[in-house]
Amino acid sequence: MLLANTVRSSTLKLALISIGIFGALVVALLSYVYWSTASYVQYRLDRDIEAERVILQRVYDRAGRNALAAAIARRIAEERLDACAAERQTRSGTRARLRSSPTPASVPTSSAPRLSLLRRGSDQHRRHQGPRSLPANG
Hints:
Helix content: 55-70%
Shape: elongated
Distance between the termini: 89 Å
């Protein structure tokens, strides 16, 4: 009989309502954090991909298809070297340096032309053109 009275009591109903509201607030907060993080990562990826596209497009415009292929191969080799160096630093117990925003003093000479292209920037006229295909001869 005591259990039946407890189930019908206003205190239990108020506690269940409070738990439901708290749960909904937690779900809303975690959803906001997820959405905010995902949109930030998407923005950074879009920005980095666009910057890389502009750099490669300028290489192609200046020197043609062979220079573009060489630039892509050089970029892949640099990324592999950076990954190996980061792995060695991690294994030795030191903190791996992130390459998200290198300073000009810390940039190897092979990366310097890429950064100078980014600084000169003026890619506003190409931003809204969408994807472009490369001509067959070059």
